[in-house]
Each structure stands twice: as C-alpha cells, then as structure tokens.
Structure prediction request, 185 residues.
Amino acid sequence: GKPVAITAPKDAVRHGLSLLTEDRKGQGLLLDLAVDKNITITDLGKVSRHGLVNRRAEAAAANDLIGQLRVKASSIEQAVRNLSGGNQQKVVLAKWLFRGTSTLILDEPTRGVDIGARREIYQLLWMLAAAQKGIIMVSSDLPELMGMCHRIIVFSKNKIVGEVPRAEFDQERILSLAYQEYVRP
Prediction:
C-alpha cells in the first residue's frame, strides 16, 4: 500500500518480496546442501544465537515447513539435489515462507515438474492466496494462468497492453492482446 525504493535484491527481500526463479537448480537452491539448510538460509537469525546455528531450532523449522508443504524427502538432511523437481520447487517455496515473505513472484513455477507435483503446487498457491499472501505468477503456459489467476496482465514488447479479469478470461482475447504489437501496420 505504499511506494518503496528497491535498488537491489536485498531491498526487495527486506520489503517482503521474494522470487521463485525459473531456474531453481541454478539460482533457487544450494543443491549440495540438505533440505533444512536450504530452507533456513533466507533468515539464519531465526535459528541462530550469537552467530551459531541452533540445530534443534533449524530442524524444527524445516520439519514444520516440509510437513506443511508435503515435501517428500527421506529426511531433512537429504541433499536437495536428490529430490524430484516438484519437491525441489516446494523447498524453494519453503525457504521464502520461512523468511516470512508477504509477496511471492513465481517465474514458471511448474516448469519441469510432473503432473502430480504440479497439482500440489497449485493447491499450495491457492492456500497461500487464501492466507493473504500476494502472488504474482509469470508463465508462458496460458491454460495454467487461466486456471490459477484472478486476473491476467498481458505484456508485449515490455509494456502492459491489457488487463483481463477472471470473469472475462478468453484464450483468444489474451493472445490477441499479447500479439497486437506484432500485427499492427
């Protein structure tokens, strides 16, 4: 509800914004670290005292979030590299929820995950929206957007060219907005 100055990623995080990047393996996770470390890395102050990580606090926080998000892992000490794509994505989501983010920006949130994990991720996003979390979903999958969003804002050539409320969702209309800049004489 108020303007903020964001000049670096740390400013965005401080203001409650988080990005679930399209490239979870390259930018969203520390693949060789365990599930618990990946979850708590966004706010070590919550599980540390005098600069030392309290393993019990870290384990409790990780166990709570993997339970809430239904992450399938053999233990919180399992390397994230060895999780399925859908469970890796849930760990990325868990780390930002641990941080206490108020707004999630999801870039291609279901890319590279199987159909079952996709459904679970959708359910989690609906649950978060119901809990008053702001969710901005960026996706090239129009049916995904139409199934998940309350409104779709269409960009073309780096400009907003239209906004479509849920009641007016129509694939042809949305696509025509997206491509109108390319077909004008």
Summary: The chain is about 45% helix and 15% strand.
